[in-house]
Amino acid sequence: xxxxxxxxxxxxxxxxxxxxxxxxxxxxxxxxxxxxxxxxxxxxxxxxxxxxxxxxxxxxxxxxxxxxxxxxxxxxxxxxxxxxxxxxxxxxxxxxxxxxxxxxxxxxxxxxxxxxxxxxxxxxxxxxxxxxxxxxxxxxxxxxxxxxxxxxxxxxxxxxxxxxxxxxxxxxxxxxxxxxxxxxxxxxxxxxxxxxxxxxxxxxxxxxxxxxxxxxxxxxxxxxxxxxxxxxxxxxxxxxxxxxxxxxxxxxxxxxxxxxxxxxxxxxxxxxxxxxxxxxxxxxxxxxxxxxxxxxxxxxxxxxxxxxxxxxxxxxxxxxxxxxxxxxxxxxxxxxxxxxxxxxxxxxxxxxxxxxxxxxxxxxxxxxxxxxxxxxxxxxxxxxxxxxxxxxxxxxxxxxxxxxxxxxxxxxxxxxxxxxxxxxxxxxxxxxxxxxxxxxxxxxxxxxxxxxxxxxxxxxxxxxxxxxxxxxxxxxxxxxxxxxxxxxxxxxxxxxxxxxxxxxxxxxxxxxxxxxxxxxxxxxxxxxxxxxxxxxxxxxxxxxxxxxxxxxxxxxxxxxxxxxxxxxxxxxxxxxxxxxxxxxxxxxxxxxxxxxxxxxxxxxxxxxxxxxxxxxxxxxxxxxxxxxxxxxxxxxxxxxxxxxxxxxxxxxxxxxxxxxxxxxxxxxxxxxxxxxxxxxxxxxxxxxxxxxxxxxxxxxxxxxxxxxxxxxxxxxxxxxxxxxxxxxxxxxx
Length: 733
Description:
InterPro entries: 6-hairpin_glycosidase_sf (IPR008928), GH-type_carb-bd (IPR014718), GH92_a_mannosidase_put (IPR005887), GH92_N (IPR041371), Glyco_hydro_92 (IPR012939), PNGase (IPR050883). Residues 1-25 form the signal peptide. Pfam families: Glyco_hydro_92, Glyco_hydro_92N. Residues 67-288 form the Glycosyl hydrolase family 92 N-terminal domain. One of its GO terms (molecular function) is carbohydrate binding. This protein has 733 residues and is α+β, with helices and mostly antiparallel strands. The chain folds into two domains: 64-322, Beta-galactosidase, Chain A, domain 5 (Distorted Sandwich), CATH 2.70.98; 325-723, Glycosyl hydrolase family fold, CATH 1.20.1610. The protein has 16 helices and 30 strands. The strands form ten sheets. It has an eight-stranded antiparallel sheet with strand order 9-10-11-12-19-16-15-14. It has a four-stranded antiparallel sheet with strand order 1-30-29-20, with no helix packed on it. A four-stranded antiparallel sheet has the order 7-13-18-17, with no helix packed on it. The radius of gyration is 26 Å and the shape is globular. The termini are close together.
């Protein structure tokens, strides 16, 4: 039996770390050992590192044609539930995601493939966050007279009348053809009505997916509608934010403002058009989190084109460039669809938050500005994305990753502390741990070191050691229980925080240990040996949870006692006490910063291999069973642990089983909430046969790639080329 052979250029083989050398000048010789060369009869890549291979019709495939935006809009099973992606129009990392909403309105995505109606087309969405979010300013075209209750109006949804591709969405519903596209901060729409004197567009300013207030619309002339709405409270957080908008039409309308309600003094409007001679109504929409003047300025800067198809082609070109950062060839059409759709989902977020002129509203409530050419980002799903999506972003788009890092630093400068899951201009406290540490260290490791890492380190140490500062925005604490973590070496399991439904002392301890390791790595990279050593010691605090009597990592009380009873006190469908979103069997493996010590502690390679074999008899078991829950982020690294027990063939088998069984080119084709690209980015790494195993480092675990040939383009650095011979899993040769 041969497992298959892979060749990876651009990786230092011994350390399994990404090469950091500068890219050669155009026409210069390639580094020794590089797989990039002129086309040859044996199917080598082209001189520029692209995947063009003689006789391979997939080598020059437009990657946007392989994206299916409907993947993830369905239900994936009991422990997957709704994946919560959206099919509408977007550009990479944009402020606007114009997409349809359906009656059940899944969290963030707003669209359920199984629904049979559309409630509106709202301008903002998140891809699978797990809590209601955004869905601001839905509009709904109607062919007939205005309904008596416009807020509850719907039109039938027929999937046979839908089209979606990167940067464009269209559907015919209720007799009206709706076509949508976007720029970074604006949207363009064309509505094709029947020829009638009573065409209607409902503008529901108070119809967002979360608790809204202050919704106001105002008519300007006979072709413009401006307004604002306050919404937010993500996952129950206190903070809300104000979105302003400017809607411009290419023809006059008659407006009826809706009466005041709990959602605002003028929460919407019914706009009437006469389409008896001309069935087309064009709309340009601009948004801003600064104010109405910002929305108007964004529209002036980006919304000059009324032709939705031209806007869509520009959006598609931006996606073509972004998706072209990784070129794969070979494999089946279905597998390429899953791959490029996963990459597409990985690049939707975080969201642009600054206006075209650089202004944005900060965590202190004041208006700030980024430097020209830079962007303030928001909606950073920290706990979800630090493992996979952030390293991918830093690898492919180091400049954007630098801006992401600077955005977190600006949030902390304005609010006092690094945020866990910043939503718009506010703290949320969502999920345990201190994910910003791993994000910042990961960007520094995989990126081009283009942000102020010394300032980042100061803020990371501040969050981990300064216990007396005022809470952020009056309530936010970066590391709940940190005082006792520093005193005892673990967080006692006597409280619930960070939106956990159970006491979460054990999982908080494990997350803080990972964060401490990330701090130590950044400190070491900056030459701060004292800080590096101090935090490296703390990163071993996972040891304090190990119970030798049971062989598990377990929660402890303030006196040091483990809970009575079995180590796996499980209830079907529920997280185990001590572990946020998981149980002791699943969190046992979440020590990515100290894998050799974990293997030794659990009895050595053979014993760990046996335990992993049992663990992976189920691949997506949910929180209440002692098996893998691949649809949840703490388990992302577990399939790759066999690489550290001398059984890389088992990593290859398990990873391949996950990619083949839990991902697909269907609406239910992901193993869990997409979590703003977290779930999708895991697949992208796995398809390349790589996994960023240890946060804050460039260490990569290896498996077998899914494609015969792949090239990862890294700006300013050599391409990373992966070639494969054999299918990699149990192939007889």
